[in-house]
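RETRY 2/3 - previous attempt timed out on the joint model. Re-submitting the same 309-residue input unchanged.
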Amino acid sequence: MDALDGNAIAGTLFDVFGAEMTDASGTCARCGAASPLGELKVYLGGPGTVARCRHCDNVLLVLVEIGGTMCVDALGLAAIGRPSRDG
Amino acid sequence: MRSIVLDLPGWRGHRAGQHVDVRLTAGDGYQAQRSYSIASAPEDSSLVLTVERLRDGEVSPYLVDELRVGDTLELRGPVGGYFVWEHSLGGPVLLVAGGSGIVPFRSMLRHRNAIGSAVPVSLLYSARSLARLIYHDEIMRIAAQDGIDVSVTLTGEQPAGWQGHGRRIDRDMLAEAGWPPGDQPLAYICGPTGFVEAAATALVALGHNPDRIRTERFGGTG
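RETRY 2/3 succeeded.
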C-alpha cells in the first residue's frame, strides 16, 4: 500500500485539534526530526489511520474512530508546534 | 475525469491549494469520504472540483457518473494549510504535476492571475497522453502569459510532431524546466506517491533545499 501524506488527513486533524494542523510542526520522539504534519507518511488502509515519521518511520499518530468517538494516540510525537495560522 | 461546479451558500472562501472532504452516505448508513483538491481560485465565483474516476473507487465513480445538477453533497472544508500558495510566500515557484496532480496548481495559477502577481512560475506537467492532459486549453493559454513557463511531458504516447518531452520526469528535465537551486525556488509537487517521491528526490539531488519543497500525494482509493 502506498503511503500518502498528512495532507490527506487535514480534515480529520482539524476535527481533532480544532485548528488547521498540516502546517503545524511535529517532532518525532525517536529521531528528533521536526517536520510539518502535512509531510508525515500516512496510511489510510487499515482499520485506523497511521501517521509515521518520514525520516525514521516511527509511528507518531494513530487515529481510530470507535462508535463515533475519535481515539487519538500521539505516543510517538515529542511535540506539536503551534500552527502558523488558522486555516 | 469530470469537473463539478458547486454552489455553496455561506462558503467562507479558501486558499489556493486547499481541499475539501466529500462524504457520501448510502441508504443503509454506510459512509465513505475522500479528499479532493479545489480546482478553482479563491476569486472564482463558484467552487470547482475536478475528480478523476478511479475503478473500484467508492466515491469518485458516483461523483463522475451519477451526480446530477441539483443534487446535494456533504462537504467539509476548506482543509489543508501546508500545500498552499499565496503571494506572501513569494517565489520563484516551481510546480511539478503528475496526472490529476495538476488540480491544485490550476487553483494557484488562476489565483496568481487574479491578484496580478508577478511571481515567476515554472510548471512541469507530466501526463500519459495529450488526451489525458487535464485543462489542456487553459494550460496552453496560461503558458502564453508573462512570467509563466510551462513544460509538458507525455510519458505514454506522443502525437506526431510532438515538441515536448516524452519520458518520465527525471533530474535532467527538472534541471531544464525548473529553477537553479541558487534561486531558492519554492517547489510544489503533486501526484501519485511514486511520482512525488521520484520528483522530490531528484530536486534534492540537484541541490534544492528540502525545506523549500512541499509535497502532496494521492493514492488509488478514490
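Residues 125 and 154 of chain B are 9 Å apart (CA to CA). Closing ticket.
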